[in-house]
Amino acid sequence: MSGKDIPDDTAQLRADIEKTRRELGDTVEALAHKADVPARVKESVHDGVDKAKEAAGEAKTKAKEAAGEAKARAGQAVTRAAAETQLAADSLAHKATAAAAHAVESLPPPVQEKVVLVREQAGRRPAAVVGGLIAAVLLVTWLVRRGR
Prior knowledge:
Layout: H1 10-35, H2 37-105, H3 109-124, H4 126-146
Helix pairs in contact: 3-4
């Protein structure tokens, strides 16, 4: 301050001194903060940890969302595949039934009667039929390998 900037009023002079003291106190505090390197490092680390926690939380949320979407898509794919498999199985069963009926029709009448009897018994005892089919497959496999 130059000599001509000095106020004549004592109250004004005291107010200027108080303002200067506050500004000087703020400056000293800022310099002390800058000079306190360990505290600044600790503060910086704390900020870094907070940012890392926040990023981890966001990543966790995104991962959960992606997993939910993948689960939904997988469920839809399984449902579609099951429906397609059922359609294919129904079609194949229909074709097999038609082929079997045609084959039975081409047999002589006495053989047709026996086939009808066997079909009726198979309907009553499906486990026995499955066991017989397995035995037949094993017998054919054994005969084929023996013939080599």
